[in-house]
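queue> pop job 88
queue> type: inverse folding (structure -> sequence)
queue> payload:
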């Protein structure tokens, strides 16, 4: 679940930090609410919904600058409001981010993503260790979809 981020000047760290706990576990100070945060898996979910591309592997098109736009209202998180009354951001319907691209451009990105994944699959035949790594990554992405 998205969680509130609490920010404060931490005596223990000697710098400004944000944590998921209102009371800092290091110095005991009460932080100031500073918007919402997502877990890594939730970030991946946003990315996949926004781009239509997988969050892992060559299908993510490394080296390609995707025209991703982050919602300014919720800063790409998709949740807006106070810690007590957070809800889906009204400006992006809780998506957090989207692609600034036409349907044709999105379809083209998807084609390139699938081609890159296929190339990698063929090139990677025989590299057993790499295959296992990718399978693990896929399992985690699947877990996100189940929620
Ligand atoms: Zn602290
Ligand atoms: Zn938003």
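queue> result:
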């Amino acid at each position: 679940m998205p969680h509130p981020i609490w920010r404060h000047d931490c005596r223990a760290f000697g710098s400004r930090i944000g944590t998921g706990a209102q009371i800092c576990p290091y110095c005991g100070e009460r932080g100031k609410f500073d918007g919402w945060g997502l877990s890594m898996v939730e970030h991946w979910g946003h990315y996949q919904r926004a781009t239509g591309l997988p969050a892992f592997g060559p299908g993510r098109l490394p080296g390609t600058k995707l025209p991703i736009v982050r919602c300014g209202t919720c800063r790409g998180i998709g949740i807006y409001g106070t810690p007590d009354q957070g809800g889906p951001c009204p400006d992006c319907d809780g998506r957090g981010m989207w692609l600034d691209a036409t349907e044709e451009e999105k379809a083209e990105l998807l084609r390139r993503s699938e081609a890159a994944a296929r190339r990698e699959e063929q090139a990677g035949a025989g590299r057993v260790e790499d295959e296992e790594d990718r399978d693990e990554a896929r399992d985690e992405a699947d877990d996100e979809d189940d929620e």
